[in-house]
Every structure is written in structure tokens, then in C-alpha cells.
Prior knowledge:
The protein is α+β, with helices and mostly antiparallel strands. The protein has three domains: about 10-130, no CATH class; about 150-245, no CATH class; about 250-445, no CATH class. Helices cover about 50% and strands about 15% of the residues. It has 19 helices and 13 strands. The protein has helices at about 20, 50-70, 70-75, 85-95, 100-115, 120-130, 140-150, 165-175, 180-190, 225-230, 250-260, 265-275, 290-295, 305-335, 340-355, 360-370, 390-405, 410-425, 430-440, and strands at about 10, 25, 35, 40-45, 45-50, 155-160, 175-180, 200-205, 210-215, 220-225, 235-240, 280, 285. The strands form five sheets. A three-stranded antiparallel beta sheet has the order 2-3-4, with no helix packed on it. A three-stranded antiparallel beta sheet has the order 6-8-11. Strand 9 (about 210-215) and strand 10 (about 220-225) form a beta hairpin.
Amino acid sequence: MTGLEGYSIYPGPGDLSPVLQRYCMEAGNSGIYIFHHQFCVCPFPLAFPVPLEKLLHEREEAAMAALAAGDTDSFLLRHEKPYRPEALMDLVNEGHFDSKPEEYWRLVRKVWVDSDLPEDDPYWAEMLEADIGSVQAMMGEGDRAQLAAMPEVIQVWRGVEGMDETSAREAVTAGHSWSIDPKIAERFAKSFARSSGEAWVARADIPKARVVAYLADRGEAEIILRPSDIAELEFDLISLGSKSQGFSDLQDKLLEEQHNGETMTFTDKIKAHLESFKNDEEGHKLFPHADWRYEVDNDDTSLGYDDWLSDKIDFEVDDVADNVNRFIYRGCKATDGEISEIEFNRDVVDTFSTLRIIDDEAVDRANGFLGEAPEKPVFGESFGSVPSDVAADLSRIAHLGMVFFEGRSTADKITSVLVEAAEKHGITGSGVDAARARAGGETPEP
């Protein structure tokens, strides 16, 4: 049909010719249909200044003209993103790159960066396994220099989602993209993980000779491997838990490994977490060189930076342990009716502020109840003095306490969660003893 402004409008797939209807597909079970053609990908309703058949013909002619003129880049760009890998491999099969392998790998990089195909699409494997020399041309000069500077065996990381270890392993071997930065793999794993799945990070050591390319321009420190190398790759898997239960920090998991699998106390975990903030640039994210220098200049310390930092971390560990223990005890008092709703919400705000947990829904809710503006992150607060899984459990306790005052939770539920969190993280202290005693029917005073 033709619109009032002269546009050709197609409200739905039924308005297309039978030939073009073959290119229509539903987006999941959404009821939304998409016209999916190599020269046009667009959701319905469609509206074009010319009939769709003519539009497709014009775009195809322009693509072929670019190819005839030797402009392979324009030829590929005139294809919609999901179809560029297929168009590139068609050129390979036609012998287009037999005399210019560097151009092929340069275009592989382009297609790799901007196409929308999932990593397990067979076209990626076909592209990376192509028997075409000069693979180093997939990298820019800076990428090649950085790869050359890496050791002969490179540790690489990959973040995936999986319902269990088996499905996580399948996800690891289904793709080709890894990173030399574990934090990037951790970020991807947590972003992929749905509420019903877990975030997993794979770790492997690979010979540098097996690297197809190193790409740094997307900020992902990306290592690309061939499918044939991935199939036999040996790797470790680290579970970071699920979104619903609160993700663990990869760094904390790695620090636990360094303790040879021994059970870490709560204070050990906090200290390991705080020590993970050390870096070469600032010295430490929470206690940087600048703070130490300020104290030295004001005669507040005569210690060297390392000793000063050690004291700061030890003090922070003690403060965190005391505040977590107190928060658990105050949760017990709330279930006994010995503190008011206002007092409990104040405990939430004060405790989370001390633990540098600022960006949290429980804190926002408590501030809203108290009618106070949320505290803004300052200096190190955005990093948090406790691991993310501990913060998630404290947030859960805070929420339960708040809904308890609204009559939507029970004292037994809160007590069981307090004890569960203490056992999970190895938290000890008089507040934890009080929670355990309440669970057993006694009520000692800490």
C-alpha cells in the first residue's frame, strides 16, 4: 500500500508478496515480526520511499557495483550486519582473496567487531579456520606489538552463563573470544547470567602461537582462538554464583584458591578482599599514597607506606567485623520488638555507610523511610569493604527486617537468614551467638 506522503507502507508480513514473505520471521514469541533480508533488516510496519522490491534491487546493484570497482569494504557494508559474515565467505569461496590475503583478515576484523551474530554461529568458525595466510593482518600495529610483548604462554579468561558446570563448559567451547583481563571475563559472566543461571569464568593457559589475534580497541583485551584449538583446550571453571543469591567476586574466589582450599574465617575474607584493592597507580583504592603522604606531612604517622597500609587494612577489617556482628544483633533485637522501625532503618543506613555499601536498594529504601537524601559515594566507598556476596546477604537481611515491621515477614524467617548468612561467610561474634541462641530457643545478651 502507498501512504499519503508517497511512501510504500507494509503493516505486516501479509502485505508483502509471497516471495518476500519468506524473509519474515517472528522475534521470539513476542508477536513482533521482522523482515530479515541481506539488504534490509527492519521490524514491521515497514515504510520506504520506494516499493520494497525496488529498494532491495537498488541496494543489491549498489553492492555489486562496489565489488566490481574493487571496493570490497563498501560491498560488505551494503549488506546488513548479520549477513556480512556470509557475504565475506562467499567471496572466499569465489577465490576473491587468493592474491590478497591481508585484505581478507582486515575484513574479518571489521566483520568480527560490528556484526550481530552470536559467537556460536558456524560462520565465525568458518572465517577463523579459512586456509588463508597473513593472519597477522587481522591486528593493527599496536595490537601486534602488545601481543609480541606477551609471554610465550598466556593466561586467558572467558565469562559465560550456565545452569550447571556441564552447560557452562559447553558455553566456554562454543565461542572463540577470550580476554587477558579476568575482570572483563567476570563482567561478561555476570551480565550473561539470568536469574535462573549462574555466572562462570573459565581460565586457561594457551601458547601464544595459537592466538589468531589480539584486539585491544574495544577495551576488552580480547584474544581470539580458532575452533580447532578450543575443542581440545583444558581450562578451569570458577562459579560466581547466581544473581538471585548474590554474585561472588572473582578476585575473592582466586584469593580463596591461594589458601589451598582451607576454610577462611570472615576476617580472613575481608582482609583478602581489601588487599585486592592494591594497585601500582595509587597504591590502594581505599588507602592511596596521597592519604599516607598527607598524614606524613602532618606528622600523624612516621610509618612507611606499606606498614601504614597494613595498619589501615587491619583497622578496617576489625571495624567491618564489629559492624556486621552488631547489625546481626540489631536484627535479633528487631524481631524481639526491642527496637523501633525508625531505629532499624537507621541501623541499615549507618551500617552500610560504614561498610562503604552506598549503591544498594536496601539503603535507598531506608533513606526513603527516614526522609533523608541518599549518601553520595566519596573516595573508596564505591568499592565496598565487603565482598559482593556478603553485601548481597546483608542487603537481604535489611530488606527482611524492613518488611518484618510491615507485617510481611516473621521473626523465625529473619533469625534463620541471620544464622544462614553467618554460617555461609564464617561470621562470628556475640551477635551471631545471639541469633543462634534464638534459633535454639535461648536469648543471651551479647
